[in-house]
Design brief:
- This protein is mainly α.
- The protein is 53% helix and 4% strand.
- The chain has helices at 12-24, 30-49, 60-72, 77-98, 123-129, 137-152, 156-160, 190-202, 227-240, 249-264, 267-274, 279-285, 290-300; strands at 167-168, 173-177, 183-187.
- It is globular, with a radius of gyration of 24 Å.
- The termini are far apart.
């Protein structure tokens, strides 16, 4: 990633130091850094239009006015929430630099966004989807991709970056690099391992050196398969298997999480498998019906268990 251009004063120098910190110390992805940069640029424009001049002059009321301006412009609550989160992180960074702990964005909240649960497939639909009607090279690869998504609950970028050596077929474990370049080790089911082994039997030789030659999933030309190609292949398989909705990686990841949670009731374990930093993310990401929750409660809570003679 090249050096990021400094923004115009007054936010330029501070913002640039902050973005370099995110890149060099936090090692966030270029996409995340770009989002932070856009949010800070928006705050800078607000400062210029309101003649605030210097970032040190901003107060909580100013941040609230900025958030209100974003809302009037039609930004969704989630987008405003992200902008405020970037601003809070920015002021925390400045506080560590200067020793001044005042953070005018600390208590400013975005409009509450409606809770949306991703669509999921039930077990029968998953079985129907994973029934590939061809044994071609492409079908073997697509089958291995789909099986691994559902077996390990991976994100799209995580699966695309997997290399052959990341999977240990003997221990049935996969080491994957997730958000923030954090690695985690997850189990892989025997069905997925078998599909991967069948794919490796026919995997085309790599057409380039470096990481390309060790990529687990490649195109017909021997190059690492792109995330866009993966999305299109999953959608195509959904149509071939007569699914009523388009199937995408997030749907398979959510189906994995839902089925694991429904079967085990272990929210903490599912959090680890998904690679969520906060368990609250897992609670939103998954859902349980009340009947299953009642069964878990009755089986686990000491005061819920029936006593003899009741």
């Amino acid at each position: 990633m090249q050096d990021m251009p400094a923004q115009d004063v007054p936010l330029g120098a501070s913002a640039t130091r902050f973005l370099h910190y995110l890149r060099d110390v936090r090692q966030l992805s270029p996409h995340t850094i770009s989002s932070y940069q856009r949010d800070l640029a928006s705050l800078e424009r607000f400062c210029k239009t309101t003649d605030k001049g210097d970032i040190d002059e901003l107060m909580e009321a100013d941040i609230r006015a900025w958030a209100s301006q974003l809302h009037r412009r039609g930004l969704a609550g989630g987008s405003i929430q992200r902008s405020l989160s970037a601003t809070r992180s920015f002021y925390n960074f400045l506080g560590r630099e200067s020793g001044v702990l005042r953070n005018p964005a600390a208590s400013v909240q975005a409009p509450r966004k409606p809770r949306k649960l991703p669509k999921t497939l039930d077990a029968d639909q998953v079985n129907k989807y994973l029934s590939f009607d061809s044994d071609s090279i492409t079908a073997r690869r697509d089958s291995a991709i789909a099986e691994l998504f559902y077996s390990a609950g991976l994100r799209l970028a995580e699966l695309a970056s997997i290399e052959i050596d990341d999977i240990d077929p003997h221990s049935k474990l996969l080491t994957v690099t997730g958000k923030g370049k954090k690695t985690r080790t997850v189990p892989v089911g025997s069905v997925a391992l078998k599909a991967i082994a069948q794919w490796l039997e026919v995997r085309p030789p790599a057409s380039a050196g470096g990481s390309e030659c060790r990529a687990l999933f490649t195109s017909n030309r021997g190059r690492r398969i792109s995330v866009r190609n993966i999305q299109e292949r999953l959608k195509l398989q959904g149509r071939k298997s007569a699914m009523r909705q388009d199937v995408h990686p997030h749907m398979l990841r959510h189906s994995f999480a839902s089925h694991m949670l429904e079967s085990s009731g272990d929210l903490r374990a599912v959090q680890e498998l998904l690679g969520h930093a906060n368990i609250s993310t897992t609670q939103i990401y998954t859902h349980l019906d009340f009947q299953h929750l009642a069964k878990v409660y009755d089986a686990a809570h000491p005061r819920a268990k029936r006593r003899k003679g009741d």
